[in-house]
Amino acid sequence: MALTLIEKILANHSVKSVVKPGEIIDIEIDVRAARDFGGANVVKNLINNNLEVDDVSKTFFTFDCNPTGSDQKYAANQQYCRLYAREKGIKVYDIDAGIGTHLVIEKGLAYPGCTVVSTDSHANILGAIGAFGQGMGDQDIAAAWANGKSWFKVPKSVKITLKGKRPDNVYAKDIVLNLLNKFGANTLLGYSVEIYGEDVDNFSLDQRITISSMATEMGAIIILFPPNEKIIKFAEERSGKKVKKILADADAVYDQEFELDMSKFVPMMSRPGHPDDAIDIKELKGSKIDSAFIGSCTNGRYEDMLEVAKVLKDRKVAPGVVLKIVPATDEIWQQLLNEGIIKIFKDAGALVSNAGCAGCAAGQVGQNGPDEVTVSTGNRNFAGKQGKGKVYLGSPAEVAASAVAGYITTLDDIPDKPAEFSAKGGFEKAVKRTRTTMKKPAIIEGKVWLIEKDDIDTDMIFHNRYLTITDINEMGQYAFDNLEGWEDFAKKAEAGDVIITNKNFGAGSSRQQAVDCFKSLGIQAILANSFGVIYERNAINAGFPIMTYKDISNLQLKQRDKIKVDFERGKVTNLKNGKSIKINSFFDVQMEIYKRDGLLG
């Protein structure tokens, strides 16, 4: 029986010589990878179920979602995986290496005809070399690591033949956007797609990767390119092994076949929200942008970066526009550095980050803010995927040209003078507020929290992972959640409470949130032996009462006793036993700011 390319690959990795669409089979997995996203859960699934890794030589970690180490949770997961890898002898491609799906190709781990699974939904990028790649959940990956096999339902196959030659102004990204325009997000749902054509056979590895990487956005299981001699040679050089060319049988039966005239393809961009909402870029020309991103597993390749360099050489990014560039792998990064291309990027005004997934991974380079308009070479522009703004998808050349122009344009239509932002409009104005004059009390009463520790710093008070919070009402819940023994303080605290602590409270950074979190909780005051210099200013300027004391032992305080504090006289009384002491009172400026409810009041 004649087989399609996917059927042949799956049959070669099963106990059967022939497989049919709809049939469920167990297949051997040649490469089993887990990223920093999901990797920790893979390990936990193995440990919790007393499972061991089947073959460590075929098993890998790839840390590509957050190679900047900018997120504490990612950092914790990465280190957890490193420790497991050291114990089991598993190879780790760490934060300096690049995107995992690219690495398995680049390092020769994968080759035409092999099978690869990863916690990356774009593992089907392996179709670029005629291999089977599949993204899977952490339980699936754990099972593959333990058993060396996984079950699959053999998909139906579709054959697409691209007739004619690719126009000079149409890039690989434009090709896949033209396909998305034709097929949408679900016409090819669940299919394995094979792409053929006389000019297609000339596509480079980088071009094939771009197209295969967006199979997921088309709903397809995979987009497979039959490997040509260049791909075979590349795979043999990288893997160090003889690679057999695996092709579909000439009389293979496809569920559907399509012929498209590639010579009629045009440069395209996807409008925000849906990758398949791709239209002729001419319809978007002139749309003002705020930022541009070049990278991702779709367009972070060397050839992509060369196209960008052609645009940026001797040019500058438009005033007010931010351009971020992230190569796919460190090998590509080093090549760009050695050839002076990184300098071209920097001279143009771009930010260049270390290799990784970038904009697709929340918190890393490429994210945008509310109402920000971004042109991106990524594969997804779903709402919230690359930030809170709007994202258009296009080719590296078109994105770079738009970054220079300050608006969406094409390579052949870059203006001599870029567009600039209007000085008026678009910025949120302050809401007019009617201030009510309220007499603030000079004497307060409240129950105490005795926190008998020195040098409580601002990271212990309000950790830097919460610094993006700007609404004071949200800050209270995180007060002290990084202070050992007091992590649940925000849940126990009551409005009107008073904190009494030791020396150097508020040491460390200048973050105002370390004061405002207590205001958010309704804490009335903090008494300490001393305060960090910046913390003291921040508290006073916020109109938040702080006072210093030398010794409060005579008060004989116990946890949750109620006290009275007189800010003007500097007197503290334990209302339970009636004992009082003198402490340092408010000084004049402090009292003035307190009565105004803050420096800006």
Description:
The protein is α/β, with parallel strands linked by helices and 601 residues long. It folds into 3 domains: 5-264, Aconitase, domain 3 (2-Layer Sandwich), CATH 3.30.499; 271-413, Aconitase, domain 3; 443-595, Alpha-Beta Barrel (Aconitase, domain 4), CATH 3.20.19. The chain contains 18 helices and 25 strands. It has a 7-stranded mixed beta sheet with strand order 22-21-20-19-23-24-25. The protein has a 5-stranded parallel beta sheet with strand order 4-3-2-5-6, sandwiched between helices. Strand 12 and strand 13 form a beta hairpin. The mean pLDDT is 92.
Q: Could you name the CATH class of the largest domain?
A: Alpha Beta
Number of helices: 18
- Envelope shape: elongated
CATH topology of the largest domain: Aconitase, domain 3
Number of domains: 3
Poorly predicted sequence stretches spanning 5 or more consecutive residues: none
Mean pLDDT: 92
The CATH H-level superfamily of the largest domain is: Aconitase, domain 3
What is the radius of gyration computed over CA atoms, rounded to a whole number of angstroms? 30 Å
Structural class: alpha/beta
Largest sheet: 7 strands, mixed
What percent of the residues sit in helical stretches (DSSP H or I)? Answer: 25-40%
What would CATH call the architecture of the largest domain?
2-Layer Sandwich
Strand order of the largest sheet: 22-21-20-19-23-24-25
Share of β-strand residues: 15-25%
Number of strands: 25
- How far the N terminus sits from the C terminus, by CA atoms, comes to 82 Å
